[in-house]
UniProtKB/TrEMBL annotation:
Residues 88-186 form the HTH araC/xylS-type domain. One of its GO terms (molecular function) is DNA-binding transcription factor activity. Keywords: DNA-binding, Transcription, Transcription regulation. Pfam families: HTH_18 (PF12833). It comes from the Bacteria. This is AraC-like DNA-binding protein. It comes from Nonomuraea dietziae.
Length: 186
């Protein structure tokens, strides 16, 4: 077993906190959020040993990215308004039925919006299309299963809503830069 310790400089954390609205970081809440693991942090930590000998600019950029990611985790600020309630409901549907073949029309109908309107308010609220968001959720679940289970790639693909192991592999590679089998080995 090997471990990696990453220390973020206090000035970097304070600078990022200031850029995010000046709130003092809540390290206890952050710790609680990270107990279940975080695929972004895991992937970044896995890539660090291979980045040995790079410039200080790379290290500073990685620290700023990691601080930004960590300080925005768990900020479950509820979005106002009925349209955003539909977005929250849409996200809940995606999470609940991750393994099922979901269509945009199905989700939009269940949240009582037209497809066009749902896509518009979803993108406005999340910064992503519903399809991209759902794919991200599925890849994050696949990462968790690859790290914590001995399920085959085919079983993981089914549990994460992919039609085949090849579809999982393509989406996984696009999002993470590695194939599921390579991710599992690391």
């Amino acid at each position: 077993m090997s471990t990696i310790q990453v220390h973020l400089p206090s000035p970097t954390v304070q600078q990022v906190a200031g850029a995010l609205g000046g709130r003092e970081p809540d390290f206890e809440a952050l710790s609680a959020v990270l107990r279940g693991g975080d695929p972004v942090v895991e992937q970044l930590l896995r890539s660090l040993p291979g980045a040995g000998g790079v410039s200080d600019l790379y290290a500073e950029s990685a620290a700023a990215f990691l601080a930004t990611h960590l300080l925005t985790l768990g900020r479950n600020e509820r979005l106002p308004g009925p349209e955003h309630a539909a977005v929250r409901a849409g996200v809940a549907i995606m999470r609940e039925r991750l393994a099922e073949p979901l269509t945009l029309a199905t989700i939009a109908a269940e949240v009582h919006l037209s497809v066009y309107h749902f896509v518009r308010v979803f993108r406005e609220a999340t910064g992503q299309t519903p399809h991209r968001y759902l794919t991200r959720l599925r890849i994050e679940q696949a990462q968790r299963l690859l790290s914590t289970s001995s399920l085959s790639i085919e079983q993981i693909a089914r549990r994460c809503g992919f039609a085949s192991p090849g579809a999982l592999s393509s989406a996984f590679l696009r999002q993470t830069g590695v194939r599921p089998s390579a991710y599992r080995k690391n």
